[in-house]
Amino acid sequence: MKKVILVLILIALLISLWFLFENINKDRQNRDKNGDSDIVETIQYMNPEYSFSLEYPEAWQNFTSAEEITPKFNFYSSVGDLTSEELPFDHFVNETHVSVYPEGIPTEGIFGQSVSIEESGIEFPYELTTDSKVFVLENGEPFAAYLKPLESPDNWNSSGFIFAKVKINNLETVCERDGQIISEQEGCDPLVLGDQIIRNGDIDTKLWIDAVEAVESFEFTSEISNKNDLDDDFVQNENIIVSSPQPGQIISSPLELEGEVKGSWLFEATAPVVLTDWDGRIIAESYIETDQNWMTTDFVSFSGLIEFETPEDIGDFSDKGTIIFQKSNPSGLPENDDALEFDVLFR
């Protein structure tokens, strides 16, 4: 009897979610039928450095971060007493914004109840990775979308993504473990223990529609490719070609490093390599070296070995790491820095 009741509750929930998303989509289709006052004027934004463009509401503002490691491009609604110190936005801030992170963000993702992109009705113009999703409140209303393109330009890395979010007013958050609400003292841990974060509050549906239309206008303005295509024999930029390891490869210690590199990438025949965990913490350092004449602008073969301890408590997000092949830079001048980096997996 209990199983029958649970099934009926689940069916009722799925039907209510369907009606909710259908109503939001109808609002989008009909929003300009009530007169010019409902039409949202937009501004076209283009970024040649990271090869993308999008349209955002004229009433919104944009902010570009000067950080080179994790560049952030924020397009945001009026947020009252927002100060410049609160910018740039990451994907955790509770404000209405659409943001582009071409190099990703070296921290964990958002946790909470979610539905697939297909279920949400968002029509993003490019194929997305399987971990792309739309986050919902307990009542099923969408409030955020994590969109990670399967293919992107060369000036993006494999962690790049687009994020849309609408501010949750009167936000209340609880944490469930094994179906039971737990206290703050017990410590919510969705990453390791699989706890579920549940959010309640109120959102402005019109602002959500604005955010969705902004991400649907997103376009890459240069050729794109799959950064995690394991069918390729190597990953490269114009100065270094890495044949081992590969993007997305499950690695173990010791890890062999192989490939080719231009002599100008090296100093005294070597160049540093760094391995980080999912949170950007360095867990190992080593180097590559060549036994050929490195004082050349041509490519020479390299090899190396990096030893590390596999991070503990590996979960859905913490199983990822980043390996960074750095250019030797004895001058210390920023303009001489260069690196090739990509994601690997711990298991």
Kindly report the spatial arrangement of strands forming the biggest sheet. 16-17-19-22-21-20-23-24-18
Q: What is the total tally of β strands?
A: 24
The main sheet comes to: 9 strands, mixed
Number of helices, where a helix is a run of at least 4 consecutive DSSP H or I residues: 3
Tell me the distance between the termini: 41 Å
Question: In percent, how helical is the residue content?
Answer: 10-25%
CA-atom Rg in angstroms = 23 Å
Structural class: mainly beta
Low-confidence stretches: 32-37
Instruction: Give the amount of beta strand, in percent.
Output: 35-45%
N-to-C order of helices and strands: HEEEEEEHEEEEEEEHEEEEEEEEEEE
How many structurally independent domains? 3
Shape: globular
Mean pLDDT: 84
Describe the overall structure:
The protein folds into three domains: 1-30; 56-224, no CATH class; 235-346, Immunoglobulin-like (Sandwich). The protein has three helices and 24 strands. It has helices at residues 2-30, 117-120, 205-216, and strands at 42-47, 52-57, 61-64, 73-76, 97-101, 114-115, 133-136, 142-147, 151-152, 161-165, 169-177, 180-182, 196-202, 219-220, 225-226, 235-236, 240-244, 250-251, 255-262, 270-276, 282-289, 299-306, 320-326, 339-346. The two termini are 41 Å apart. 27% of the residues are buried.
